[in-house]
């Protein structure tokens, strides 16, 4: 895209953010498809979460930790009368570059997030993790992809899987770990502790919880001032890098 086109898109985005700040919240003008991007390491269940949301086998899944998503792929689903476009991405720890199912040359996840941001097509970023993995393993993904996204582009939430044996409820994981994550600088606008296992007695409750996570009216606004140098540079993060 020519530099002047990028500048035009940036000015349009700044105007949108200024409207957002004035109103004191992140707003969607008119009914449109909401874009939700799922990221995470191998084996955390990104594709399984998408299938849980859709209540259908849309995305390919694997029974082990081998990656099963080779391209960024989108799926349109309806949640409570609204249309959502769910973006499934390759595992963060497998490769930093990959082919896209949409037109255009090969681009990495950073470029995808940046272009989606300029097009106004990031409504929510979902970091998918397994509850059994260490907090430190989440830090790299959060600091590389989530921190700046939350500052300038959209709310960031966390979906935790692999909690089937946790008692008395899967949300116990968040009670035990939410504050620890915040102390590490991993701040989220929402969370869901779910199981994606077929026929599990908590599956339906998990589906409702993840629907709540996506459909929530987040009181979000950019924390980096539009038009500032930090905003243009993505606050040192990946979105505008």
Index terms:
P-loop_NTPase; 241 residues; GTP binding; G domain-containing protein; alpha/beta; 2 domains; globular; six-stranded mixed beta sheet; Rossmann fold
Strand order of the largest sheet: 2-3-1-4-5-6
Largest β-sheet summary: 6 strands, mixed
User: Which regions are unreliable across 5 or more consecutive residues at pLDDT < 50?
Assistant: 18-30, 95-107, 227-232
The CATH architecture name of the largest domain reads: 3-Layer(aba) Sandwich
- The tally of helices reads 7
Shape: globular
Full CATH superfamily name of the largest domain? P-loop containing nucleotide triphosphate hydrolases
User: If you average the pLDDT, what whole number results?
Assistant: 78
Q: Spell out the helices and strands N to C.
A: HEHEEHEHEHEHH
Q: Which strand-content bin applies to the residues?
A: 15-25%
InterPro entries: GTP-bd, P-loop_NTPase
Domain G: 36-159
GO molecular function, one term: GTP binding
Protein name: G domain-containing protein
């Amino acid at each position: 895209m020519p530099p002047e086109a990028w500048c035009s898109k940036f000015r349009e985005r700044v105007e949108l953010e200024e409207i957002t700040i004035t109103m004191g919240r992140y707003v969607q003008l008119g009914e449109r498809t909401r874009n939700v991007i799922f990221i995470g390491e191998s084996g955390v269940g990104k594709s399984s979460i998408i299938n849980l949301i859709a209540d259908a086998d849309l995305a390919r899944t694997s029974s082990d930790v081998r990656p099963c998503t080779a391209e960024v792929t989108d799926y349109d689903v309806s949640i409570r009368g609204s249309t959502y476009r769910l973006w499934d991405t390759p595992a963060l720890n497998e490769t930093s570059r990959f082919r896209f199912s949409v037109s255009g040359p090969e681009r990495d996840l950073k470029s995808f997030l940046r272009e989606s941001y300029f097009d106004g097509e990031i409504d929510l970023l979902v970091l998918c993790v397994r509850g059994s993995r260490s907090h430190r393993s989440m830090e790299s993904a959060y600091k590389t992809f989530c921190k700046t996204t939350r500052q300038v582009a959209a709310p960031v939430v966390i979906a935790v899987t692999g909690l089937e044996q946790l008692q008395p409820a899967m949300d116990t994981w968040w009670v035990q770990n939410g504050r620890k994550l915040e102390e590490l600088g991993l701040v989220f606008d929402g969370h869901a502790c779910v199981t994606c296992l077929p026929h599990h007695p908590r599956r339906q409750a998990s589906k409702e919880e993840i629907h709540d996570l996506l459909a929530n009216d987040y009181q979000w606004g950019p924390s980096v001032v539009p038009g500032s140098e930090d905003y243009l540079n993505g606050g040192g993060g990946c979105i505008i890098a």
